[in-house]
Backbone:
């Protein structure tokens, strides 16, 4: 499936775009290699179990599958799927990785 068709892709992209607006352009240039980390790993995308459950809705099993595939591919730490906040935040982290890469690639195209 194309990443743009992932559940709540546009919402996560809007989150990143809003986050970028709060950043100084010089800071962005200096931290371009760490944008994903700063945008999606230094704060929670969703806080609260109830909010996370509502956000996950009936897509929870699809989201868990995406997370499992990602973690298996990278052989990284396994998310605790019993905690809805962690599931949402890991999913936003994964989708955010694609969004940030697209953003960086668009900058490189503009400067070329």
Residues:
């Amino acid at each position: 499936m194309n990443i743009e068709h992932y559940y709540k892709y546009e919402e996560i992209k809007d989150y990143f775009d809003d986050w970028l607006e709060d950043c100084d352009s010089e800071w962005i240039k200096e931290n371009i290699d760490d944008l994903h980390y700063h945008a999606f790993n230094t704060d929670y995308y969703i806080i609260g179990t109830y909010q996370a459950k509502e956000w996950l809705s009936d897509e929870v099993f699809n989201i868990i599958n995406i997370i499992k595939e990602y973690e298996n591919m990278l052989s990284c730490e396994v998310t605790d799927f019993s905690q809805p906040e962690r599931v949402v935040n890991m999913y936003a982290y994964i989708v955010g990785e694609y969004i940030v890469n697209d953003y960086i690639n668009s900058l490189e195209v503009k400067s070329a």
